[in-house]
Amino acid sequence: MKVDIKIEEIQEFLPHRYPMLLVDRVIEMELGDYIVAYKNITTNEPYLIGHFPGKQIMPGVLIVEAMAQASGILGFKTMDKKPEDGSIYYFVGADDLRFKRPALPGDQLILTSKVITNKKGIWKFDCKATVEDELVAKAIILCADRPK
Predict the structure, then answer these.
(1) Residue 56: CA atoms inside 13 Å, Cβ hemisphere, count?
(2) What is the pLDDT at residue 52?
(3) Structure pTM?
(4) I want to staple 34 with a disulfide (CB 3.0 to 4.6 A). Which of 13, 15, 111, 114 is the partner?
(5) What is the CATH number of the domain that holds 107?
(6) What is the CA radius of gyration of the chain?
(7) Contact by Cβ (8 Å): 126, 67
């Protein structure tokens, strides 16, 4: 389902702030099922200054973090919880992680996450990051809902 969740609402569901907030907007979401969000990568991102000078690429670990943050938004919204309610969503693992191409300044990184399971507060998501329909990374992301 098409939605338009802007940064102000995203900040209600994620405790992260600049420069670690890696989701700019949510464009599709079905509670309990999937989310589609994006991160615009710009040349002035602080992590790009030194990674790598002369050939800037978004660090892979931050691509994984962006997929986890999109998953966190889906989980929080599905549970109708917010960090201010005393809940925190920890990124606890990644399986089957693969990188296929770099993400560069000027790219819009599309983050897709689909719920696989939710058992005892441990969520498992099938995640992908793409640029212009080209796969950048994919992983199975695990997150845990815990008291803050």
Answers:
(1) 14
(2) 86
(3) 0.96
(4) 114
(5) 3.10.129.10
(6) 15
(7) no
Q: How sure is the predictor about 56, in pLDDT bands with cuts at 50, 70 and 90?
A: very high
Sheet holding 122-131, edge to edge: 2-5, 25-30, 34-40, 108-119, 122-131, 134-147, 87-99
- Residue 106 contacts residue 56 (beta carbons within 8 Å): no
List phi, psi (to 5°) of 15: -80, -10
Q: How far is 67 from 111, CA to CA, in rounded Å? A: 6
Q: Are the beta carbons of 52 and 85 closer than 8 angstroms?
A: no
Note down the domain range covering 129. Answer: 2-147
Find out whether 2 and 27 touch, Cβ atoms under 8 Å. yes
- Give which of 64, 67, 65, 76 is closest to 11, Cα–Cα: 76
Residues serving a catalytic function are 51
User: Residue 45 in contact with residue 22, Cβ under 8 Å?
Assistant: no
Q: What is the mean pLDDT of the chain?
A: 95
The whole-number pLDDT of residue 50 equals 86
Residue 46 backbone phi and psi in degrees, to 5: -60, -35
The structural domain count of the chain equals 1
Helix (H) or strand (E) holding 49: none
